[in-house]
Amino acid sequence: MQTRKDRAAVTLIAALAALLAALPAFGGAEGETAAAEEIKIPMLFREGGNDANTVMYRGFIDGFNEQYDGQYELDIEWVPGMAEEIRLKLKALNSARNLPAVVTNLAPEAAFAEALMRDGRLMDQKPYLDADPEWQKVVFPESVEFNTDAEGRMFTSPSTGAPYIGIYYNKEMFAEAGIDQFPTTWDDFFAACEALQAAGFTPLSLHTTETGWITNLLLTTYLGRTQEGRDFMDIRYPTDEFTSEIFVDAVRMVERLYEYTTADAIGGTYALAANHFSISDTAMIANGPWMISSFSDTQYSPEGFENKVGYGRFPNDLMISNLGREYGRGVSMDHDLAVREGAVEWIKFLASRDNIAQQAIALGHLTHLVPLNDDEKAGLGPVNVEYFNAVEGVKLTIPWFQAQWDPINQGETIVSQLPALLYGEITAEEYAAKLAESAKEYRASL
Fold it and tell me: Could you tell me which residues are beta bridge partners of residue 72?
């Protein structure tokens, strides 16, 4: 007869047998190991908008999946719309503790990036950088410094290239208006607007939604004409500085800009403003190099339009660039270590020599660490050449406002109050005071 002890032993043996049966086989009769399951790396990419990002990244995604076939596969969710839609979705996914493995779009969302770091939502990438000499060779040292915290951790990846922002202009319209070179001073800029308008052209593409991107590029570069204004643009999350006379003066300049734009600029979107330039409704648009590919894409521009497009620095020989001093890609802690390490491999894949060169050509992310070879230079399109020529030798840059100003101002106050300013419902001083109030509200929330 079985004793209680015997029955317990039988039960334990049965449980162990069941557990062993559930484990993967690590060797057959010939000592072969079972094939590891391919690891999926969830990510978000935006689909839409007239720039080079979507086309370029589709190629990168295919290249990564081919190179890591059987080991990793990028699991992409394509989000319709512009960058703003991705940012909103990332914030919602963060609240649900379900971020994608690679967290992108952090450069213009500094406050969100810093919140993710404070909350322990991102993995430290520094050990992976330290272990990879080839990766170290292509990243900007100043970007490594920016992305490394006081404890030596690096929660977002350093930059391998930097875009520069200037102004695109329609050379044919300029010629017809009698303008023989792009304006180098603000007085000349407004004189060019007058000449274009007198020749029957609408000078500027502008808009007020989505952080007022194009409008604020012009506002901040107007600030940058003086050292005091450049000092303002070096402040991370300004508050009372918004009420300074230098900023109020720049706001008054914005009111003047809207005398030279389209009827739908107030309340209009970035996409609408970009489209106006691409179909020759307007003569100028302030924007970055990611827009270049759209000028030769007949989905967005008439055939041959790229031959009409010039690219100039802002007045006073100024361009906008963070020069790598911005938050890069994060790796979310919402996934197993194997998935996170696959995410790091994707970030390193983008930092390969050929892919850095492709980003320089397609997106204008330039770097002295990976110069283009002769074949790559020979293949540049006409607007790429204009862009490279504008950037070459530039000495004066300021950071873009999205990396400096608080999210309440960017996402709410500018969008609601800029139209009020332009409709004459509030003064420049009142607009500046509302920005300062919102900035203080953000500071108090930290």
Answer: 39
User: Residue for token digits 């620095």?
Assistant: 313
pLDDT, average across residues 148-168:
96
8 A C-beta contact, residue 275 and residue 302? no
Mean pLDDT over 127-138 rounds to 96
Average pLDDT for 146-175: 96
For 23-166, where are the alpha helices, taking DSSP H only?
A: 53-67, 83-95, 110-118, 126-130, 133-138, 141-147
Number of residues assigned to the chain: 446
* 234 Cβ contact list (under 8 Å, min separation 6): 398, 399, 404
The rounded Cα 95 to chain-centroid distance in angstroms is 22
Task: Return the sign of the alpha-carbon dihedral for residues 189, 193, 195, 199.
Answer: positive
How large is the C-alpha radius of gyration of the chain?
Answer: 26
d(CA 172, CA 308): 6
**Angle CA(351)–CA(76)–CA(300) in degrees, nearest 5?**
80
Q: Which residue has the higher pLDDT, 354 or 53?
A: 354
- Give the 3-state secondary structure of residue 408: helix
Structure tokens at 433: 């005071």
Query: Among positive and negative, which fits the CA dihedral 173, 177, 182, 184?
Result: negative
Q: Report yes or no: 167 and 285 within 8 Å, Cβ to Cβ.
A: yes
Largest CA distance in the chain: 111
CA 377/CA 365 separation, integer angstroms: 14
